[in-house]
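stage 2 :: seqdesign
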């Protein structure tokens, strides 16, 4: 309804210092040059939801869902930021790509620029694990079927759209990615009722900067991603 207040984001973990929330696909994290007139941002919703200042520790692309980490004061945010810099935060994503990567485990080491207006390329590494594959009765590029893989992605650096661009680099385009993906495969999934980009920040694990306790959080899949997962059958650990 017009004028209806934006819905609250699901809280996966919260204490007095920090929180992890579940960002839905399609919601921008904060205002930026890519916003293009958008007025609804996760950062604004969260300030209202928690009734206090919030400090985002990292970002998720608009089309990506899942774990988003934030702090309630600058010192905690700074400590978490330093933890991210030295790669002591474990970030695991689920992704669906076209094709079957040849290796069960592989790392893409390919420098990336910083996005629009930031042409300097910096080192970028993402490790991947192939969790499952499927083959659908849909013709593709001269073949009678189409092959897809479910991947676990673990970015070792934090470049602009890193997982999406790394998968494009090796021609295993992310399904639903309208910027770096393959339109034929995106359309095939839309015909199955899956309209979102299939990248989900599934798990975050880190040491709490105030208590030292190990925090591990998992974000549930939304209905469309769950529909895609069904294509792969029973996938332990997904």
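stage 2 :: out
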């Amino acid at each position: 309804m017009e004028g209806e207040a934006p819905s609250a984001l699901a809280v996966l973990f919260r204490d007095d210092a920090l929180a992890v929330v579940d960002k839905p696909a399609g919601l921008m994290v904060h205002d930026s040059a890519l916003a293009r007139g958008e007025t609804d941002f996760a950062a604004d919703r969260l300030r209202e939801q928690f009734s206090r200042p919030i400090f985002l520790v990292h970002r998720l692309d608009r089309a990506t869902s899942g774990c988003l980490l934030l702090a309630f004061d600058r010192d905690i945010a700074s400590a978490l930021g330093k933890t991210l810099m030295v790669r002591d935060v474990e970030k695991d994503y689920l992704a669906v790509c076209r094709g079957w990567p040849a290796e069960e485990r592989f790392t893409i080491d390919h420098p990336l620029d910083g996005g629009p207006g930031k042409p300097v390329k910096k080192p970028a590494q993402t490790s991947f694990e192939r969790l499952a594959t499927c083959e659908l009765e849909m013709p593709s590029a001269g073949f009678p079927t189409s092959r897809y893989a479910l991947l676990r992605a673990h970015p070792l650096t934090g470049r602009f759209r890193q997982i999406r661009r790394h998968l494009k680099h090796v021609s295993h385009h992310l399904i639903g990615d309208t910027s770096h993906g393959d339109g034929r495969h995106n359309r095939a999934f839309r015909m199955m009722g899956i309209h979102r980009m299939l990248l989900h920040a599934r798990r975050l694990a880190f040491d709490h900067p105030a208590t030292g306790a190990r925090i591990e959080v998992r974000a549930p899949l939304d209905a469309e991603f769950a529909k895609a997962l069904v294509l792969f059958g029973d996938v332990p650990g997904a």
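stage 3 :: structure notes
- The mean pLDDT is 93.
- The chain has five helices and ten strands.
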